[in-house]
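Reopening: F-box domain-containing protein still failing for me.
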Amino acid sequence: MEPRLGLHELLHVFSFLEARDLLCAAQVDKVWNEVSRTKELWRQLCLRRWSSCKDSQMTLGTQTWKQYYLCRSELEFRMESGRPEKDFVCKAIAGHKGEIDELAYISTNEYRFDGQEKSVVCTVSSDGTVRAWDLQEGTEIWSSPLQPAALVNLVTYPRLQLVVTVDERGLIKVWEAENGWESASFFLPTHSSALEACDHPEGPFLLAASADGALYTLTIPRLQLMSRVSMFPNHPASLLCSPDHQWVFASTQNSDLGPKVFHMRSLLCPSEDEAPVSTALPIWLTSRACWAPNKAARLMVMHRNDNGMQLVVTTYELGAKRSRNGVDILVQQIASFILPDTMMPPHLMKGHSSQVILLVSGSELVLFTIHGLHLAAFQDHQKPITSMWVDQSRVITSSFDLSLRVYMWNKDNKFPVLRSCYHLLGGSHRWASGFTHVESDGMSIVGVEARSIGTSILRSYYFQVQRD
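Support: Ran it again with your exact input. Result attached.
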């Protein structure tokens, strides 16, 4: 009779197995079954497959690392397959009496499979209300009282369960996401051109750009003024916060005023004698910009060249250096390329990893590296693309052709490869005029569907997993 492996030796051998091999080993006998269910084996499988997976993403109680691995694997399979009724449930959710201008998830993006997971979004509308919706149930959770003016923008703080809205007059309000109670307000002197939510290590705050070109930094949740900076006098600006919340990019479109980068700490701790630390980038006629999500301070900007005839995408690395006068901003150009003359000027721009730029031009989705290498082009939509969602797993586009298109990343190559997977269809062209927005979290996709009568509804696609 051959000697049997002890528990420690068996555990060591099992540590080299993949998930399907562990599941097979569990069928051998009672001892193998017990060892194959060891917590550390499944924890390591999770960490190898999902590098961002941390203990904080686990829900205490019935969920184990094995359950997490199996459920998340099934969820990813369903989101990649996209089979109607088998993989997801589609629901049309109506309630607003006007057009939905913006939406954002208020539920955290943690993966949990203990029956308590929820996908919740908030929306603002021209009907003067902000509302919260349960995408799984397809129901409205709460609606605010009617506001004095149409609401035009919002941002959310999922960790704090707070929603911030602004109306067309410039009135900013904070709402509690659980019940819709109003908790604070702040009046800008003019209407707002941009809002950015920043969850900084020193505390959450809000950035608001006003139409007269000023940048306001406000505390959350009380909306107390921390600083006010004049960026582009009498020019409305757009704002982009860096992934590490250390930098703010501000620009005004198609202007000879060059975009600016602000050091975040100087906005949070302003000096009475000195202006916040900032620098102007040496470009003009800026049209679009985005941060590289995998780099703390890599910025890609689309702009016109010196003669104004060609569109250029330039990539910068930002840094801060302490000096006698405080902090100096270091800007290094690391790449630049000219877009093809045959390409219509892109109206959407997003970054992926540290090297890939996604551009939307009309109904076409095009991928370049930061050095200008053309990676792929997709023409899956029949009408112009209206919005684009990008994360580590997938890309989703919405279009006036009443469809959402789902793409998946394959990261085995030198540069990530994007694969077109399937369409998610909206309603009838008789009643609807197309999708205007799309967002996603780990378990759902939601689009704003514009109706021909001047209102909007939400159309949610909720992906479910089978639990043991």
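The first helix runs from residue 7 to 14. If you still see a failure, please send the error message rather than a screenshot.
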